[in-house]
Automatic annotation (TrEMBL):
<dbReference type="Pfam" id="PF00651">
    <property type="entry name" value="BTB"/>
</dbReference>
<dbReference type="InterPro" id="IPR011333">
    <property type="entry name" value="SKP1/BTB/POZ_sf"/>
</dbReference>
<feature type="domain" description="BTB">
    <location>
        <begin position="72"/>
        <end position="133"/>
    </location>
</feature>
<dbReference type="InterPro" id="IPR000210">
    <property type="entry name" value="BTB/POZ_dom"/>
</dbReference>
<protein>
    <recommendedName>
        <fullName>BTB domain-containing protein</fullName>
    </recommendedName>
</protein>
Length: 293
């Protein structure tokens, strides 16, 4: 589970670390030139049905203008960890743009307090606002024609070849008191801060995970339902499809039984999704040999 290639017609069996060579002076010079000309701030934008790594430039502003705007500091989490970011970078988020205009900002100190946010998640959000991605980055493997995570390595267990590599797929969330899937929490942060492309990116990364325990998946699904609106049609649907696709594993799980007995909207939606799945199968069968169920 959680082992999918972004390309629907292919499945990645292994995740390997790509090796690059810059021995050619011409290629090295071209690479260095691209770094020098790249604007310092950017994010992913949707293009051609997928995510294109396209940098955003503000009209009539130079590449360095975003790094000369005023600094805003943040105190994040219960321990009040300090972060800092430029106003123009923060303005890419409607939430922070409103905060900078004064809704949550202390005018004299230019400080925003986020006591309920997880520092590790907030760090990923800031990294995304500055770089257009967060570690580990989403990398395109041209040889396989598929997407994978930066620095990902194959698991030594052939029965469970997935995993994020050098970064754990889960993170401890103090408000829940449990470990949840990191990309799910980042997706929900994108929902909170109005960053639609961050949500798409987090969902794509989560789709590359594998070897996740049933209990972690179900806890993360509940968190997704608690922190996304009922109109969300991506992360919630991702979990429903995952449970249906891996139904044999979930059926054997005592955790699944306990969670279902506790109830919640997640399981009503799962029931509806299963009914739709059965209806689709019956409709396909009737198209070949009419019958009823």
């Amino acid at each position: 589970m959680f082992k999918r290639s972004i390309r629907s017609t292919d499945r990645v069996d292994k995740v390997v670390k790509l090796k690059k060579s810059y021995r050619d002076p011409a290629k090295l010079s071209k690479l260095q030139k691209s770094f020098d000309q790249s604007p310092p701030v950017g994010r992913y934008v949707a293009a051609g049905g997928g995510l294109a790594q396209t940098r955003l430039r503000k009209a009539n502003e130079g590449a360095n203008s975003t790094l000369t705007s005023p600094i805003v500091t943040f105190t994040v989490g219960k321990e009040g960890r300090l972060f800092a970011a430029h106003e123009d970078v923060l303005s890419l988020s409607p939430f922070f743009a409103a905060a900078v205009r004064g809704q949550f900002l202390e005018a004299e100190s230019k400080r925003i307090d986020l006591p309920d946010e997880e520092p590790e998640i907030f760090s990923c959000v800031l990294e995304y606002l500055y770089k257009g991605d967060y570690y580990p980055r989403l990398m395109h493997n041209k040889r396989k024609g598929s997407w994978e995570l930066e620095d990902a390595v194959s698991s030594p267990n052939p029965e469970n070849p997935g995993g994020r590599g050098s970064v754990e797929p889960t993170i401890y969330i103090s408000s829940v008191g449990e470990h949840l899937l990191r990309d799910t929490v980042i997706y929900c942060a994108g929902e909170k801060y109005g960053l639609e492309e961050l949500k798409r990116l987090a969902l794509r990364k989560q789709g590359l995970q594998s070897g996740i325990e049933v209990s972690t998946i179900l806890r993360s699904a509940r968190y997704a339902y608690d922190n996304t609106p009922d109109t969300d049609s991506r992360l919630r649907a991702h979990y429903l499809a995952l449970i249906i696709r891996c139904r044999k594993t979930f059926k054997r799980s005592g955790t699944m039984q306990t969670e279902m007995e506790s109830g919640g909207k997640l399981f009503f939606d799962l029931f509806v999704a299963l009914c739709n799945h059965v209806d689709d199968i019956v409709e396909m069968g009737n198209s070949k040999s009419p019958k009823t169920i």
